[in-house]
Amino acid sequence: MSYKKFKIEYRWAEQKIICKHCDSVIPMGKPVLTRHVYNPKQKWTLRFNYHPECFTNEQLFYLGDIPKPIRMHRGRPALTISVEDRLDRRREQKRRSYHLTKKKKCVIITREG
Ligand SMILES: [Zn+2]
């Protein structure tokens, strides 16, 4: 399931409109939700009319297929170790990074003669 880009618009029904979800008639003067699907490559627009409740139900149904996000926050989850262990870990990380970033002496060899 992929997310499709579309624009939605709430408006009053200016005439009788058929809901795309439940195929029932929306009478004049009732709120209608119109979904515009635009294809920028081929330059056409599709319009679908819904009851506001029907649209919500349909989108919630599609959301059921998409797995929920597991973590609510970005980044690494917090460690579940004690403060002393954490300090030891940090010390070890610093020691490793020092040895990794230590600059090696480079020698420029020039050809003589
Ligand atoms: Zn409907």
Model description:
This protein is α+β, with helices and mostly antiparallel strands. The chain has a domain at 5-65: Zinc finger, PARP-type (first zn-finger domain of poly(adp-ribose) polymerase-1, 2-Layer Sandwich). It is built from two helices and five strands. A three-stranded antiparallel sheet has the order 1-4-5. Strands 2-3 form a two-stranded antiparallel ribbon. The chain is elongated, with a radius of gyration of 30 Å. The termini are far apart. Zinc ion binds at residues 19, 21-22, 24, 50-51, 54. Residues 19, 21-22, 24, 50-51, 54 line the site of zinc ion.
Give a quick summary of the entry.
It contains two helices and five strands; from the N terminus they run βββββαα. With 113 residues, the chain is of the alpha+beta class. The chain starts with 6 loop residues before the first strand and ends in a 12-residue tail after the last helix.
